[in-house]
Design goal:
It is built from five helices and two strands, in the order ααββααα. The longest helix has 29 residues, at 59-87. By secondary structure, it is mainly alpha-helical. The protein has one domain. Helix 3 packs antiparallel against helix 4 (90-114). A hairpin with a 5-residue loop joins strand 1 and strand 2. The chain has helices at 4-24, 35-46, 59-87, 90-114, 117-140, and strands spanning 48-50, 56-58.
C-alpha cells in the first residue's frame, strides 16, 4: 500500500479546513474593547499610506489582501494535492510534495514568528503531514 497517500490526503484536508476557516474571518469585524483600541481601529481603517504611483491604501485594506491571499494559498494547496492524488503518479507527486514543503515550510516559519497559536498549529500539521508524505513517497518508489 502507498502509505504516503494517507498523509498527503491529511495535509490536503487540513489545508482545506484552514483555508475555509481563515476565509470566514474576512467577514468578521472585531469590536474595540476600550478607547485606545477604538482609536487604533479608526486609524487602521482611515489612515491612508502613500504607496507611490497614486496608490493610497489603509492598513485595513493591506491586511485584508494579505489575509485573503493566505486563504487562497491554503485552498490552492489543498485542491492541488487532492487533484494530483487522483490523477498523477508517484514521481510527479514527489516533485509537487517537495514544492509544497518549500512553500508551506516558509509559511510555517513566518506564521510561527508573527502569528498566534491556532494558525501555528494548523500550519504545523500541514508541514508535518507533507514531511511524512515526502518521506514515504521516496520509500514506496
Amino acid at each position: 500500500m502507498k502509505s504516503y497517500i494517507i498523509w498527503l490526503k491529511a495535509a490536503a484536508i487540513i489545508q482545506f479546513i484552514f483555508g475555509i476557516i481563515h476565509a470566514t474571518t474576512l467577514f468578521i469585524t472585531q469590536q474595540p474593547g476600550n478607547e485606545t483600541e477604538k482609536q487604533l481601529f479608526t486609524l487602521i481603517d482611515t489612515y491612508q499610506l502613500d504607496l507611490g504611483a497614486g496608490f493610497h491604501r489603509t492598513f485595513g485594506e493591506l491586511t485584508l489582501v494579505f489575509s485573503a491571499s493566505l486563504s487562497l494559498l491554503y485552498l490552492f494547496g489543498g485542491l492541488m494535492n487532492w487533484y494530483l492524488l487522483r490523477k498523477a503518479g508517484p514521481e510527479i507527486i514527489k516533485g509537487i510534495i517537495t514544492i509544497n514543503l518549500v512553500i508551506f515550510g516558509i509559511c510555517f516559519g513566518l506564521i510561527v514568528a508573527f502569528a498566534f497559536l491556532f494558525p501555528i498549529i494548523l500550519t504545523g500539521l500541514v508541514f508535518i503531514f507533507l514531511i511524512l508524505s515526502r518521506l514515504l513517497v521516496s520509500i514506496s518508489n
